[in-house]
Amino acid sequence: MDHQENNERALHLLQTVFGYPAFRGQQAEIVGHVSGGGDALVLMPTGGGKSLCYQIPALVRDGVGVVVSPLIALMQDQVDALAEVGVRAAFLNSTQTYEEASRIERQVRMGEIDLVYVAPERLMTERCLNLFQASKIALFAIDEAHCVSQWGHDFRPEYIKLSVLHEQFPNVPRIALTATADPQTRAEIIHRLQLGDAMQFVSSFDRPNIRYQIVEKANGRKQLLDFITTEHGGDCGIVYCLSRKKVEETAEFLNENGVRAMAYHAGMDHAKRAANQAKFLREENIVMCATIAFGMGIDKPNVRFVCHLDLPKSIEGYYQETGRAGRDGEPSSAWMAYGLQDVVLQRRMIDESEADETFKRVLGNKLDAMLGLCETLSCRRVRLLDYFGEASGPCGNCDTCLIPPVSFDGTVPVQKLLSAVYRVDQRFAAGHVIEVLRGVETDRIKTWHHDSLSVFGIGADRSEQEWRAILRQVIALGLVTVDHEQYSSLKLTDAARPVLKGGQKVQLRQYQKPVKQKSPSRASKGYVESDLSPREQAIFDKLRWWRVETARAHDVAAYIIFNDATLREIAKARPTTLSDLRGISGVGEKKLASYGDEIVAMISEME
Ligand code: ADP
Ligand code: ZN
């Protein structure tokens, strides 16, 4: 087939099988390149639409498409979703019986299957490699390709061995895909998978439908509850916490307060963890409280919010975690509460880690970038994208764009704070220093005669919260460090000197009392609040109920039937014939045949 024909066939498959009118972003180019037999490296953010980049070429080309994926738990859902649109898909992994696997292997050999998912350790077996040698292979797709990176947190040793594909199947195109953006990981993928000659497709990493918000932590759990109930009542979401204990406590707290929540962390037994994950993927109106162990491959498209109750270690981590919100492109939130304690804790974790000095410095730099994002006076998205080397302008859909923070000349209060640290001989922790500044006569202050210091009470005009906010920024700016060897005492750095001496000014972000914030106008870019009329809303709700029941009857996740965007469009268009329904994005031929009559009847009934 020539190039032109391939492209026409690809578009036809997109429309009839998947029911989408057009390719998105770079999909068309990628599909064209791989369908024509080329190797590709695809870097696209979560929700960008990576799956179609290998699924369609696998259908265009002769033979079976082999998808290497580290996520055994999700293979069933992937195969279910393909079956729903009428694509013949299967998987080979350790959860199957020998008979089941043999049956799939036979189908692969006979070319009776379009796509087969395999775990990397399975692929590396003699048996599997022989099977693929004896079969016609359309392509190899290597999903989550960043798993080859030894420095990343998803490292899988078996991924490194995937270079054999290049050696054993030199004529089969390979496409590697990942949502990890940094240049180091990219270089490692190319090197390890021998993709030096592959065409690289790098998409913008912006996720315009995600609204970023970072608030000052006062009572984190309470703030979280307010955020969920005021902005995301009834939605699915993920809440990340640092420790297992906090995960459990947060889930319990949410449940006590009427938000359905579950827990997920590496300390739970395997069966319970797997059950909670499956439940989260299948059900609506549920919140998962988790450590970062819950992550890769959370393919649920309608996660409406991702919250952080603790500061992530790096912007890479933060971006990957928040990226799990809104894969379907609908308005979603990334919300974080952060406070002084977070900064202190993360610094301590670095100091106390076993890593060598160079590595500690790398960790420290990553943390500094993360703090910079938290304390920024300008657009969060600009900061985030800049970190990944992408230039952009103010987004209009983050907290600093929507409610610009007030900054002020903080030189004088910072000088007061630095002097107080110095006057107590750099031997006391934050709480004590703030008490000295505010002139609180505690026993400890009297014991040490700190009430006779010149700095005692010079900061009485500010609340404790305000002083904590200032101290946090002073630490973020690197003027003060926390010494964990010595009771978390505050120490001045060399950078503090010019400020203390009065040569250097310091601009600070104004502390804003955590008020119960009504959500800012959602009319801005990327954020279209439900634009359904009451009548359309009623249809939408009915469709959602129908979807829950249908999904249960078919034993698949609800989003596999239709996603929210498709249901919303149906509610608006109110199709009363099958041909009207066919025109809607997300309705392919197979789904039209399976559900068309039911939907049309349901809508006619409501007219
Ligand atoms: P990724 O793997 O990059 O995170 P997915 O492949 O899961 O993204 O796609 C994310 C969502 O976007 C899915 O719900 C998918 O059906 C949808 N999608 C992908 N490509 C298109 C397209 N061309 N038109 C409409 N929707 C699309
Ligand atoms: Zn912004």
TrEMBL record:
Cellular component aspect of the GO annotation: bacterial nucleoid; cytoplasm; replisome
InterPro entries (alphabetical): DEAD/DEAH_box_helicase_dom, DNA_helicase_ATP-dep_RecQ, DNA_helicase_ATP-dep_RecQ_bac, Helicase_ATP-bd, Helicase_C-like, HRDC-like_sf, HRDC_dom, HRDC_dom_sf
Helicase ATP-binding domain sequence ranges: 31-199
Taxonomic superkingdom: Bacteria
Domain annotation HRDC: ranges: 533-607
Any Pfam family matching the protein: RecQ_Zn_bind
CDD domains named in the record: DEXHc_RecQ (cd17920), SF2_C_RecQ (cd18794)
MF term (GO), any: DNA binding
Annotated PROSITE patterns: HELICASE_ATP_BIND_1 (PS51192), HELICASE_CTER (PS51194), HRDC (PS50967)
Residues annotated as domain Helicase C-terminal: 220-371
Catalytic activity: Couples ATP hydrolysis with the unwinding of duplex DNA by translocating in the 3'-5' direction
Family: Belongs to the helicase family. RecQ subfamily.
Protein name: DNA helicase RecQ
Species classification: Bacteria, Pseudomonadati, Pseudomonadota, Betaproteobacteria, Burkholderiales
